[in-house]
Amino acid sequence: MSIDSSCRRADNRRTEKERGGGETGTHSGPVGEAAEPLLRVKDLVKYYPTERKGFLGARRGEIKAVDGVSFDLHRGETLGLVGETGCGKSTIARTLMRLEEPTSGAAYFKGRDLFTLSKASVQALRREIQMVFQDPFASLNPRMEVGRIIAEPWVVHPGIVPKEEQRGRVNALLERVGLPATDANRYPHEFSGGQRQRIGIARALALQPDLIICDEPVSALDASVQAQVINLLVELQTELGLSYIFIAHDLAVVRQISDRVAVMHLGRIVEVGGEDEIYARPTHPYTQALLSAAPAPDPVGRKERKRIVLEGELPSPVNPPSGCTFRTRCWKAESICSQDRPQLIDRFDHGHPSACHFAELQILPAAGMA
Amino acid sequence: MSAPLQMTAGDGPAARDSGEPAGNVTVRKLLRALWRDKLMLFPLLFLVALSVAAVGAELLAPHDPFDQNLRSRNAPPMASHASETSSFPYLLGADPLGRDLFSRLIYGARVSLAVGLASVLASGTLGILLGLMSGYHRGWLDDVVMRGVDVLMGIPGLLLALFILFLVGTGFWNLVIVFALTRWMIYARVTRGLTLSFREQPFVEGAQTIGCSDSRIIFRHILPNLASPILVLATLEIAIVILAEAGLSFLGMGIQPPAPTWGRMVAEGRDYITSAWWLITFPGLAILLTALSLNLTAAWLRMVSDPVQRWRWFMGRSESRHEGDGETALAYSEPRSSRTNMENSEPAQGRAANGDHLLEVIDLRVNFRTPDGLLNAVNGISYTLNRGQTLAILGESGSGKTVSAEAVMGILDSPPAFVTGGAALFDGIDLLQISPSRRRRLCGERIAMIFQDPLTALNPAYTVGSQIAGMFQEHRGTSKREATAKAVELMDRVRIPSARERVHDYPHQFSGGMRQRVMIAAAIALDPDLLIADEPTTALDVTVQAQIMELLAELQLETGMGLILITHDLGVVADVADNVAVMYAGKIVETGPIKDIYSSPAHPYTKGLLESAPRVDRKMDSLQQISGAPPNLRFIPSGCPFHPRCTYVIDHCSVEPPPLYEVRHDRSASCHRFEDVMHVN
Ligand SMILES: Nc1ncnc2c1ncn2[C@@H]1O[C@H](COP(=O)(O)OP(=O)(O)OP(=O)(O)O)[C@@H](O)[C@H]1O
Ligand code: SF4
Ligand code: SF4
Ligand SMILES: [Mg+2]
Question: Which stretches are transmembrane (chain B) (predicted)?
Answer without folding.
Answer: 39-61, 111-132, 230-255, 275-301
